[in-house]
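Data availability (excerpt). The following record was deposited with the supplementary files.
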Amino acid sequence: MVARILCIAGSDSGGGAGIQADIKTITALGGFAMTAVTAITVQNTLGVSAVHPVPPEIVAGQIRACIDDIGVDAIKIGMLGNEAVINAVADALAGVQVPIVLDPVMIAKGGAPLIEEEAVWALMQRLLPLATVITPNAPELEALTETEVGDAADMLLAAQELLNAGPRAVLAKGGHLDGDDLTDWLVTRQGHQAFGNKRISSASTHGTGCTLAAALACGLGQGLALADAVARARQFVRLAMLSAPGLGQGHGPMGHQALFNDVTAPGPILNQITLPSRDYATSVKFYKELGLKPIVDSPADAYGRLVAGNGVTLSVHGGIGSAGAATIYLESLDLDGWVARLQAAGLVFDQLPRDEDWRWREARLRDPDGNIVCLYCAGEDRRFPPWRL
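Predicted structure:
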């Protein structure tokens, strides 16, 4: 059955964050999104100019209507705004036994406050003890713990302090800290785990926190372990940033609509085909004329990669065999586990999973006709490698 994810958050008229980002994210990841709107905001990429709170009893009524009829597998909580709404949400969720992801939305990207000061204490007392995981950034960590957060060590200490308020885990986000590398820390009572990547230089960052929390809730609702759900959620956010449509004059929205098969399927999905080519330039010209868009072009290596309208990529490669002999690429988020299961079933591999220089992790075997079948995991490096055109 499809995972049922309830999002309790504010509405963003600009469509980049809040309930709108939640729905886009959960839909792209294969879940079913339900909503309880806590506030209507007047906002766009330049900022928030007005907020109209939804009455607490209506917020609670939305929650009960969804849970009582459709049911729920995980809950994402975002903007709440005031103490009355916080108390209404806490009361409505009393006794609900599903994963809860709490994104402590306190300040909009443009700097507008999204929660009343006196409501922070209610958030700490009523909702943190219900949370499976809370996802604060550095400024939110500072506000919740009343400590200064200037580096990774400060983040870890603040996250440990937050654990004492009751959540089972804290995902402390490092995007506000300086440096070319960005590291988020998953902190539990059993220890901590770092999730790091190179920072993406982009003005399209509106809704990153909402999207991450919604993706995390969807993963937990689909049965992923917490660390696996964090990894997939982070990758979803990065791909959405890389796919941003470039809209607006300020902090632009991400490109949820452009995510295809990159993080949605745990099982084999046909994402990439490589064809041998007698004449590299002619082959590339042919596929461009068919409407595919080049994303990698390396004439010196006689190698190019093009992308179709549904996100599937096609490579042409000179000198790798006779024309007509193809390499079929099947992607899985669980590559190593997949290969282990196939080996146990008796399949023989020419290459077991290993990390390649082009940043893909690959295993290889052959089909009964001798064609190469590559099982791989590439994440953002399939469509967005560092050498992308």
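Summary of structural features: The first helix runs from residue 18 to 28.
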